[in-house]
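Continuing the batch. This is chain 6 of the set; chains 1 through 5 are on the previous pages. Same settings as before, nothing changed between runs. Recording input and output for traceability.
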Amino acid sequence: MDIGRVLVEIHVCGRVQGVFFRQFTKNTAEELGIAGYARNLPDGCVQVLAEGPKESVELFVQRLRVGPPMARVDSLGTEWKQPSGEFADFVIRR
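Output for chain 6:
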């Protein structure tokens, strides 16, 4: 595991389901070289796990604060964790 990698769990709430938020998240992750997943939660929020180079992950979090055009992000929480290396790419989970 290289030293510059980080892992963050992100919890995004607002109008983030049914507005292509997870697809936006996947596209952004792939553009920035980030692995992990995004999934809808029963409470209407989206959970994201993202791992990659520190600068890329920080930019990723900034982009998720805005989201795609039809989304409205009311809150975004982050929990930084130890990188695991378990993800090979970024996927949308059901």
